Amino acid sequence: MTRGTYVKLVAVMLALAAVISVLMLQIEWFGDADSAQAGPIDTLFDVSIVLSSLVFSIVMVMLIYAIWKWRARPGDESDGAPIHGNTRLEVAWTAIPTAIVLVVAIYSWIVLNDIEAKASDRMPLHVTAQQFKWTFEYPEAQVGKDSGGEPTYLTTSQLHVPVDRQLEVTLSALDVVHSFWVPEWRIKRDAVPAGASGDEIDDEFVVTPDKEGTYALICTEYCGTGHSTMRATVVVESQQEFDQWVARETRAQKQSASASGGGSSAGQGGT
Ligand SMILES: [Cu+2]
Predict the structure, then answer these.
(1) Which of 43, 101, 111, 120 has the maximum number of C-beta atoms within 10 A of its C-beta?
(2) Residues 6+ away with beta carbon under 8 Å from 158
(3) Are residues 59 and 169 in the same domain?
(4) CA of residue 119 to ligand 1 center, whole Å
(5) 156: CA distance to ligand 1 center in Å?
């Protein structure tokens, strides 16, 4: 291969990679980005698109060039030349993918560290998944005490959270594997029931919703016949609105607990 051909091939590869990257980056892959974690995740995805486009272009250009350049001419029935190997080529096709994978791995590690960093003012939240509903418990809002004297907390079927405050979510599953996913927050985490040891697997994560609005929490792990109905409304609101909602719900649950003779922690708040 002459130097001129080589330069031309590289130019075609880069041009193709640029065109594919630009087209792919026009697509809004994940919809609205409404958490502090969404930005770094989306940027990581964009970088992966550009690198993938580059690898795809290198392979396609080399493939098409080889098919065209070394095709069998009409009437040519001879065998190909017995080639043993090409050390330079083999070193290149080992070193370049290794470098790309390392760069992506290190960058992903940095992003993961970043999105998992815990804020000092984070709010604890317990999320319980079961066939086929979600339950939310607020450890900062005590409602009463159970018969054993243990505190009971505000428990609701709709999730309300304050905007711009990091949530430290502890996930539990009561029966089978479920998965917590609010698409606009990007974070998706499986809820795995505790095994014989009583330990839940990988059950904690943080997320910081940074836009007010109403969202859907979706169970995104097939968990049985009612799986498609396993959704909960998520309301992200100002700290003040959130505080008012907590006060209202806490009062209602205290009342229903005393009406039923106390000790109930199974109150299911509505709004
Ligand atoms: Cu489920």
Answers:
(1) 111
(2) 136, 232, 233, 234, 235, 269, 270, 271
(3) no
(4) 29
(5) 17
Sole residue written with tokens 């031309």: 8
Domain range for 24: 3-71+85-115
* Cα-to-centroid distance, 38 and ligand 1 (Å): 23
Instruction: Calculate mean pLDDT across residues 201-219.
Output: 93
Q: Which residues pair with 134 in a beta bridge?
A: 129
In this structure, the answer to whether residues 157 and 176 fall within a common structural domain is: yes
pLDDT in tens, 130-157: 999 999 999 998 888 888 889 999 999 9
Separation of 20 CA from ligand 1 center, angstroms?
Answer: 37
Looking at the fold, whether 174 and 152 belong to one and the same domain comes out as yes
Q: 192 alpha carbon to ligand 1 midpoint, in Å?
A: 10
Q: Are 38 and 67 in contact (CB under 8 A)?
A: no
Separation of CA 90 and ligand 1 centre (Å): 48
**Are 59 and 145 found together in one domain?**
no
CATH number, position 149: 2.60.40.420
Q: How far is the CA of 187 from the centre of ligand 1 (A)?
A: 16
- Measured in angstroms, how far is the CA atom of residue 222 from the centroid of ligand 1? 6
Distance CA 52, CA 64 (A): 18
Q: Do 138 and 94 share a structural domain?
A: no
Place of tokens 């892959």: 29
The mean pLDDT value for 11-29 works out to: 95
- Could you tell me the distance, in angstroms and rounded to a whole number, from the CA of residue 186 to the centre of ligand 1? 18
95-116 pLDDT, tens digit each: 988 999 999 999 999 999 999 9
